[in-house]
Amino acid sequence: MKLAENYRKAEFCDRVFKLEFVREPAGVSSPVASSTVFESMLRLLGAASTTEGQPRSVPSSLEAGTEPSAPFPRTRVDVECDEIPVNAIVVAAKSRVLKAMLFNGMKESDKTKAVILRVTAAEEVAFKEMLRFIYTGGLSARLQTAGAQMRELVSLLLVADKFEVPSFTGAVLKCITEREWKMSDAATLADSLPEVLTEQFPDVKALVDKARTYVIDTFKDVNATWTSAEFLDLSWGQIKLLLRSDELEVDHEEVILEKLLVWIGTHFSDLNERKRAVARLAPHLRPHSFGEAFVNSALFRLPELDLVRNDFRKSIDMLELAGVASQFFPSRRSSRVEIVDSVRLDSDGRTAKSKSVRWLGQRWHFAVQKVFRKSPPTVGVFLYVGATATELEPGIEIRIDFLVKTWPEKTWKQIHSGTNVSASKMFAQDHSHGFLDALGLPWDQAMQAKEYLDPSGRVCFKVEAQRVRKAP
């Protein structure tokens, strides 16, 4: 049964809301369909009157999920409409905007005339849900199920803000917070809410921050995730969110560019459109992080880079010439780390520590120590992290390889085959992982082993660690 029919049965209804439906012109569509509803809604909100008591103006984002050259589609008002009888006092008690329209002497306050509201299809559903909430104090049961679409919940937040119904905003936020999120939920929240909303409501900002963190955590391993179907489904705004992040894990910026071109090719079939897309995303790339061979690579010569090639070259040359400090242009986080150091094995068996490096937000080093629990004592090599397991990223797995340099060949010999280590298990006790008998020799024999001693009498060890995706 329609909402309007339910309200018509209420004897105390004294006013009518007349919803006029705003439609998109035929043939206009967005290449990233997931953002179309929100762009239409934000356009309407952005065009709303700023007069006291009228729906608040909300800035819209042209870039989120839209083709670089696509103009804003013009909207038109359809002659079809829906009339909803309401009780003015009940509605005004919950919404400051509707109260002003009904009672503050505006033309809409004429009791003999319907209050005309122009809405999109998405706003129509959201507006009726808001009216239902005003009368019943609760959301529809279907919105509190796993099958509810996050897009619809976001449209409810936008309408709640537009008509200033804080209790409705709170109910929708509670519904979003309590549901079990999927990747698509986080992606929708990450770039669908205007800044004016996040600035005004701390709870909304916290929700958006959580969603953005979720998206970044999901796709920060560039090599492993940027070819997935989930990544290719991301919108324009979500791609920009990732490119701006300092959390991306990749060794060279050209890897990001390669994956980005695949995403662009998925959404834009025309070469000129792909060129414009690259030009708009290029400011979020980091030229100083490109590898030395980038300017001579086939990637650099691709036609998609025609509009930015000279700028890339100038930026790289300028940074190299100026020797700009890395703190002004932070690099991406590497998905791997390498620690190399030489230690002396002495008769006292003193523990030797390598230099430390920062990786995954923590300090890492390896130590070479005499293992007295073995008989005779052996050479132990252990990788240490300066954090408890609870401080490391949940569920993280690290592939660790231990190597030693051989002489006179100067080649690296793997001590043991690489292993994937669950940080929460292996680093839980003493923050370390390694081997008690790294060289397969007693300590005293290792001190004299010409195979491992460099000209200065030291042994050179290398530890390689790489963050890997946990097997499903």
UniProtKB/TrEMBL annotation:
Compositionally skewed regions (Polar residues) per UniProt: 49-60
Stretches for region Disordered: 49-74
InterPro entries, alphabetized: BACK, BTB/POZ_dom, POB1-like, SKP1/BTB/POZ_sf
SUPFAM superfamilies, sorted: POZ domain
Residue ranges of every copy of the BTB domain listed in the record: 73-143
SMART domains noted in UniProt: BACK (SM00875)
Pathway where this protein functions: Protein modification; protein ubiquitination
The protein's role, per its UniProt record: May act as a substrate-specific adapter of an E3 ubiquitin-protein ligase complex (CUL3-RBX1-BTB) which mediates the ubiquitination and subsequent proteasomal degradation of target proteins.
PANTHER family: BTB_POZ DOMAIN-CONTAINING PROTEIN POB1 (PTHR46336:SF3), OS02G0260700 PROTEIN (PTHR46336)
Protein name from the UniProt record: BTB/POZ/Kelch-associated protein
